[in-house]
Write a structure and sequence with these properties.
- The structure is a homodimer of 367-residue chains.
- With 367 residues, chain A is α/β, with parallel strands linked by helices.
- Chain A folds into three domains: 161 residues, Rossmann fold; 105 residues, Orthogonal Bundle (6-phosphogluconate dehydrogenase C-terminal fold); 75 residues, ACT domain (Alpha-Beta Plaits).
- Chain A is 44% helix and 18% strand.
- In chain A, α6 packs across α9.
- The longest helix of chain A is centred in the middle third of the chain and has 30 residues.
- The radius of gyration of chain A is 22 Å and the shape is globular.
- Chains A and B meet through α6, α7, α8, α9 and α10 of A and α6, α7, α8, α9 and α10 of B.
Chain lengths: 367, 367
């Protein structure tokens, strides 16, 4: 398998290291600092010409800063092979909405490694256990989505398929809003202290403000890239804070509100637990764009995680079969959802067993 | 030295353990569960009669829940010896403002151990390195404030003298507001996720929401006890979040705001560093109520930490001398502030040396 990495920094370099060592892939790099990436073993070869880097690639990762992302993705799609899957690693997906009309493109976002930048911090294990969001659309080609999904699993990540708008809304809530709030907490604390020495607090204030002021150039760009969803998240947060303030001034008791927060936190923690035992679900699908995205997005929307998938086209390529591995406890629901989309569920195997061997991919990606 | 502990839970029990083992004090307890505290070694004796527990005490710690705190402090002050210093450990100081008119009373608040309750979690080292706020007033007797300050240092804490109102404002900002915000972040995340599975995020969201929904009964009471200062803190936070939201919707760049947050966080971290080398400052003071509180509050207001102090009355008790240990780099400023209050600075010793031996206190508290 040939992997091209456009932009070989922390993320691109880590993709290269993991693809080489875990998937035995040939990795090509396109970056002003590609020579350094070669020296570090993150890529096999450095290319000055984008076309050379992309020639014959099975998968292309665009891992450039958010301000040049949309343009770079467009250029890559012009020059990439027709059979290549192209993805990006930007932290918001509306940035690359334009590219999403190309059947070869799948927006991506690994939740890993924003704290240190540069290929010098790249690590083979950067994505181990990390959620890697994928945002296919109705035009996405199913075989390419499946190839990328399995490639990411091979890198150690947990791919999760999600609608691009939902992705941006979720990231606003679980990442961008907490960063904004950390900044505000620091500012409020300094204001309250006046000249007083800050107390030797326990870990709670330190934890709540650990990311305050993180990487200003990077985070300025992230806030801007997701400004609509973040402003909406602020609407919700401000409204809730106003309610709490009104209750305090009315002399109301906030114990039951604190109780609700405990219940909500438990729900989040429990929902975030690992997938555990999985069941295989096999589905007959017509071989046309959008089908795989449709199925996987429907399951994603229901909170059903797909830990692995495998697509087998029929000999005449008109028809195919997709195997999906979903959590044991959600298999019935997943089967019903897929059937509801009009696809035939061929078989279900509730026995817990490992996903299909990844030897196929590691041996060269002939899928 | 005899220490009485009224309410022998996590905090009271830890005071007992540390006072016994580090200061060789005799510790008496008054609590429905005092027998268990005796069994755990937190106190020497359990008393059913409050007067018995307080009889002959040099220092009294009132460590009962916030809803009965004001009443308990009032009762203790009625029955405590005239020579005893009485303090509480409540998380807001406006709760005990009524008691603050008694020259024996000094409001207190150790920033330690709110996470687990009960004498079964009491530890001798609970206060090691923790800030322990003290809120003396103009009526507080200086010798008693000094006794308490040194006692707390002996327990392992870092006493910090602060105005009661400032205390409540600071606690709203560094503790109560972060708890409110953690609840709101959890609520916003669940709302954004809808049915989606939460991502395997890095530590930032987990850290920011670790305290969400913590101990509802306890925190309901804490919010209520500091409702005015917390509502004011919410005013500030909401205003700042509204500004950020407006900038996002206007298409403004938030990089410089993120930069400011980085600078603010650094200022907080640097201000919170340990005291390092200290200088001794000796000041002649008239022996009347309020003088010590006046000096120590003035230094506290300027952010100058007093790591230790010692008060030596003149033989006729009309005059005295107080020695204060302050950070090396702030000694000139501290001397100027004290002189500005009209007191004579007798001597300054810039040599770094350990504070006065605590043997005096450990040998029985004859001060």
């Amino acid at each position: 398998m040939i992997v091209a990495v456009v932009g070989v920094g922390l993320i691109g370099g880590s993709v290269g290291l993991a693809a080489r060592s875990r998937l035995d892939a040939t990795v090509r790099g396109f970056d002003p600092r590609a020579d350094e990436a070669v020296a570090r073993g993150a890529i096999h070869s450095a290319h000055r010409d984008l076309g050379d880097a992309l020639d014959g690639a099975d998968a292309v990762f665009v891992a450039v800063p958010v301000d040049v992302l949309a343009d770079t993705v467009a250029t890559v799609l012009e020059q990439a092979p027709r059979s290549a899957v192209v993805t990006d690693v930007g932290s918001t997906k509306r940035t690359v909405l334009g590219a999403a009309r190309d059947p070869r493109f799948v927006g991506g976002h690994p939740l890993a490694g924003s704290e240190a930048a540069g290929v010098e911090h790249a690590r083979e294990d950067l994505f181990d256990g990390a959620t890697w969001y994928l945002t296919p659309t109705a035009t996405t080609q199913g075989t390419l989505l499946e190839r990328l999904h399995r490639l990411l699993t091979g890198l150690g990540a947990r791919p999760a398929i999600i609608d691009a708008d939902v992705h941006d809304r979720v990231m606003a809530a679980v990442s961008h809003l907490p960063h904004v709030v950390a900044n505000v907490l620091v500012s409020r604390a300094l204001d309250a202290l006046g000249g007083e020495r800050p107390p030797a607090t326990g870990p709670s204030f330190r934890d709540a403000t650990r990311v305050a002021g993180a990487h200003p150039a990077l985070w300025g760009g992230i806030y801007a890239a997701n400004r609509d969803a973040l402003a909406d998240a602020l609407d919700g947060a401000i409204a809730e804070l106003e309610t709490v303030r009104a209750q305090l001034r009315d002399g109301a008791d906030l114990t039951s509100w604190q109780d609700q927060a405990a219940i909500r936190r438990r729900a989040l923690v429990e929902a975030g637990l690992g997938p555990g035992a999985t069941s295989e679900l096999r589905v007959a699908v017509p071989n046309r764009p959008g089908v795989i995205a449709d199925i996987t997005l429907t399951l994603g929307r229901a909170g059903i995680n797909i830990s692995d998938m495998a697509l087998s086209p029929s000999p005449d390529n008109s028809q195919g079969e997709i195997a999906l591995w979903v959590p044991d406890g959600r298999a019935d629901e997943a089967a019903a959802l897929v059937a509801g989309l009009g696809f035939a569920v061929i078989a279900r195997d509730d026995l817990t067993r490992p996903p299909i061997s990844r030897a196929r991919m590691a041996s060269g990606g002939q899928e």
